[in-house]
Design a protein that fits this description.
This protein is of the alpha+beta class. Helix content is 52%, strand content 13%. It starts with a helix and ends in a 12-residue tail after the last helix. It comes from Roseiterribacter gracilis.
Length: 433
């Protein structure tokens, strides 16, 4: 956050604190009145009426702070709680210097909350580990037993113990001085997050999604339960449940089905691939991406690929896969037609044969017309063939992208490179596979 942004937040915080002080309950008459009003808050430091001025000032402050902090670090609910607590502490203050200092403290508290360092630990129902851990950027897959041993050697080990088990449970009332004991799936995710704690679960899920998509496209071998095109991939840290129902026809009844959920088996061969310098370098360029870089856009696309694989609804899968493609193949230029850009750029990436390019571009334009009917007309009529074809195209594009060197370069220069190839030239950036 720069100096100008902080200055604006200080002004908004001052407006809020002033409105708060005006809305503070002063006596019994005020208490009787606000109890009949639409909104009020009781606090150990007093009571406050939710006046229109107060509500608007708090909304302005929380929204602008969240916008400046960004989606990962900004959380409006947390900002509102911090602002309210600080305002209660200042409601009876008359010293201008103390008020100014209190408003600075309010802003500092918001910023501190927004940059909390968090280690998220979640059940891992997606990986089968045959040996060592898997580390991809800030995401690590390990065994619960192994991570518990690490915790015992850290200060946090005095607070928490992890025990392998079927589902996430905990001891409700440990004895004084004892650690909380959590039972968690035998394989777990450990995710490093910097942001508002209120956003941690959502951010961890996104980082895991990006990591899984990256790994999926680079594995040198696939096990028998590897999620295939069209498979619904389980949520990475929620247990798999069969979606069963009773289906009746005029002649028969059927009930659900039983199947093993898709999983990623991490074999020694995959472990060696993960340990290569190229795997680590591109993972770093994706998870620690420079703004407006190719790596940043690839990371976004990888996250949407995972959302597509996890969706059970064909129309949802279709939208997510198109979102992934658009993340890497469209640019900020609003004058170029999106469908033509996507179709041409995808075609030059996937083949150097001009006849094949024409066929691929035509196929993508046809699929995009289905997307337009879905987005603009609300028509969910997407068949599995269309959803699976689009998944195959999307994964083929990202199969090449995650092997492309120099992901730190500008995304705009990558788009320029593809645009030149649309004039019948080979794509100069095609990786050697």
């Amino acid at each position: 956050m720069d100096k100008q942004q902080r200055g604006e937040l200080q002004k908004l915080a001052t407006i809020y604190v002033d409105a708060f002080r005006e809305a503070a309950v002063q006596g019994r008459d005020d208490v009787a009145r606000i109890l009949r009003s639409p909104g009020w808050t009781l606090h150990e430091l007093g009571a406050i009426e939710h006046t229109p001025e107060l509500v608007q000032a708090l909304a302005d402050l929380s929204q602008r702070a969240a916008e400046y902090l960004g989606a990962t670090k900004g959380n409006e609910s947390a900002i509102r709680k911090i602002a309210e607590q600080c305002a209660f502490e200042l409601k009876d203050e008359s010293n201008p210097e103390v008020l100014t200092s209190g408003i600075d403290r309010l802003i500092d508290t918001i910023l501190t909350r927004a940059t909390t360092v968090i280690e998220g630990i979640y059940p891992n129902y997606l990986f089968h580990l045959a040996g060592a851990d898997v580390s991809i950027g800030p995401v690590r897959a390990t065994t619960t037993q192994r991570f518990d041993q690490e915790l015992r050697e850290r200060p946090e080990g005095e607070l928490v113990r992890l025990v392998p088990g079927k589902r996430l449970t905990y001891t409700e009332f440990p004895e004084p001085g004892d650690a909380w004991t959590f039972t968690i799936h035998p394989v777990c995710w450990v995710v490093s997050i910097v942001g508002a704690p209120e956003n941690a679960d959502e951010e961890a899920k996104w980082l895991i999604d990006v990591a899984v998509s990256y790994l999926r496209l680079l594995v040198p071998e696939r096990g028998p339960l590897f999620p295939k095109i069209g498979d619904v991939e389980p949520h990475p840290f929620f247990p798999h449940h069969e979606k069963a129902g009773i289906k009746l026809t005029c002649t028969a009844a059927s009930f659900g089905k039983v199947s093993l959920p898709p999983t990623y088996s991490i074999t020694p061969l995959i472990q060696r691939a993960i340990a290569t310098d190229s795997f680590k370098a591109n993972a770093d360029a994706i998870f620690n991406a420079r703004p407006k870089s190719l790596g940043e856009q690839i990371g976004r696309g990888l996250g949407w690929l995972a959302r597509g694989r996890q969706a059970a609804d064909r129309a949802e899968r279709f939208l997510y896969f198109f979102t992934a493609i658009e993340a890497v193949l469209t640019r900020d230029d609003k004058t170029s037609p999106v469908v033509q850009t996507i179709a041409r750029h995808a075609a030059v990436m996937l083949t150097d044969d001009n006849g094949g390019r024409a066929e691929l571009a035509s196929l993508l334009r046809k699929l995009y017309s289905n997307r337009s009917a879905l987005i603009h007309g609300g028509d969910p009529s997407v068949i599995w063939t269309s959803a699976n074809t689009l998944q195959q195209i999307a994964e083929s594009i990202f199969f090449l992208l995650v092997r492309t060197p120099d992901l730190a370069r500008k995304h705009e220069s990558f788009c320029d490179e593809l645009a030149r190839a649309t004039y019948g030239l080979p794509w100069s950036g095609r990786p050697q596979i």
